Amino acid sequence: MSEPKIDLHMHTIYSDGAHSTEELLIRAQNLGLTTISITDHDSVYAIKEAVEIGKDIGIEVIPGVELSTDLEDKEVHLLGYFINIEDEELQKYLLFFREERVYRAKRMIKKLNSLGININIDDVMDIAQNSAIGRPHIALTLLKIGVVNDYYEAFHKYLRDNGPAYERKIHVSPQSALKLISDAGGLSFIAHPGHLKESILMNMINAGVDGIEVVHPSHNQYQVKFYRGIVNHYCLLECGGSDYHGGAKGDDDNLGRFLLIPQRFEAMKQMLHQNPG
Ligand code: AMP
Ligand code: ZN
Ligand code: FE
Ligand code: FE
């Protein structure tokens, strides 16, 4: 059998991805991926459908989610894998967080209005539909109504961290997100740590995170080596993937190119068997 091709980080329209679950799986299949995880922000809506389609087309689908937490005033993303998507606490948390995202989007729209931009929440909702609403949906709306010429200009001019229309999400401590993931039977990973200070990384390791995302499009080869070194040194797990969103983000080339080493994936499964949730 040929080598497995594993990508454990991608998004659908249930968060800020451009593709439906089915479209995403077909893309994955066309690129020869054998195992994927869908890791929508604050939503597990895609998972059930993805597992079913995956069974039909021969792709193993690992339940995943991406949560936003705060540490030292920085946003730290956490990936949860092998979570029980029916877990009640998890469901409650995700629902609450998605509601909070709507209030935050309204605050960002207010700021845009005060900058003289005629945009309203309905425009953004039209684009976001029933997904976890976030800055990418506002960026796409600004693009659609012609306020900016491309997706990235919307961030550069208005929506980037601490930009003129930026609003923070509600504060969630990494500890509570780690507990949520482990109580739902999952394994937790620090997502794309490339932009984080080492003190934050150490803090997360001390807080009991299970692993680190080593392979990610934002990491250069030295960072991949560096984070793999940390994983090995602290006996942590490694995950990795393309963080593929599709659409205006222009990351179409990434799917299929950022893969987790199969042995590292086996180590994740072994850890689950040692500590069944
Ligand atoms: P949110 O969760 O609503 O804060 O949106 C975060 C998402 O916005 C990230 O996952 C990125 O996809 C996107 N994003 C954040 N900052 C930038 C930026 N400076 N340029 C482009 N995209 C960004
Ligand atoms: Zn995203
Ligand atoms: Fe992220
Ligand atoms: Fe992501």
Question: Would you give an account of this structure?
Answer:
The chain is of the alpha/beta class and 277 residues long. It folds into two domains: 6-82 and 171-274, Metal-dependent hydrolases (TIM Barrel, Alpha-Beta Barrel); 94-159, DNA polymerase, domain 1, CATH 1.10.150.650. It has helices spanning 21-30, 47-57, 88-114, 121-128, 135-144, 151-159, 174-183, 198-207, 221-233, 262-274; strands at residues 6-7, 35-38, 60-71, 74-81, 187-190, 211-215, 237-240. A seven-stranded mixed β-sheet has the order 1-2-3-4-5-6-7. The two termini are 31 Å apart. The structure holds adenosine monophosphate (AMP), zinc ion and fe (iii) ion (2 copies). The site of zinc ion has 5 residues, from loops.
Fold topology:
Elements: E1 6-7, H1 21-30, E2 35-38, H2 47-57, E3 60-71, E4 74-81, H3 88-114, H4 121-128, H5 135-144, H6 151-159, H7 174-183, E5 187-190, H8 198-207, E6 211-215, H9 221-233, E7 237-240, H10 262-274
Parallel strand pairs: 1-2, 2-3, 5-6, 6-7
Antiparallel strand pairs: 3-4, 4-5
Helix pairs in contact: 1-2, 4-5, 5-6
Bound molecules: adenosine monophosphate, zinc ion (ZN) and fe (iii) ion (2 copies).
